[in-house]
Amino acid sequence: MKFCSNCGSDQIVFIIPEGDNNRRFVCNNCDTIFYQNPKIVVGCIPLYQDKILLCRRSIEPRFGFWNLPGGYMENGETVEEGAKRETQEEANVDITIRHLHSVFNLPTVNQVFLHFIATINKIDLSPTSESSELRLFNYDEIPWEELAFHSNKFALETFFLNKERNESKVHIGSFWK
Ligand SMILES: [Zn+2]
Q1: Which CATH architecture has domain 1-36?
Q2: Confidence of residue 1 (pLDDT cuts 50, 70, 90)
Q3: For residue 18, how far is its CA from the centre of ligand 1 (angstroms)?
Q4: Which CATH number fits domain 39-174: 3.55.40.20, 3.30.590.10, 3.90.79.10, 3.30.40.10?
């Protein structure tokens, strides 16, 4: 951070403010403290007749890899709305969110992923601006080596674990890079 977004000054320091425990960017000119907190990424496991919808990414990062639909939550929406919107944007499908499936912490990049179980109401597998290919996978067809992110792998692995055990447990995982 170079300039204060409050007063425009370049007198930004990175210090522990009085009464705080963490270092923060602080403006020496107007005393504004800039708190930085993790971002929430919301997505889902979209199910259609016992198959899972994956999107092949046509955007960076991890261009060309398979991914569950998901993305950054926006201000003013709920996590369920965010997951639905991201799925609409990436896969152009209308879904119904069923329940929370997994929480995945990425403390080194300051992100938290939430994946919901969702059912697809109407399917259209044409590519979108963010996905070059959309495909329904049987459980034994998941391209494990070509999945884009650890959070996806975790969500899918625990999905199958639940299925095997006939449970609907919410799983919490972490990845330290
Ligand atoms: Zn300032």
Answers
A1: Single Sheet (2.20)
A2: confident
A3: 17
A4: 3.90.79.10
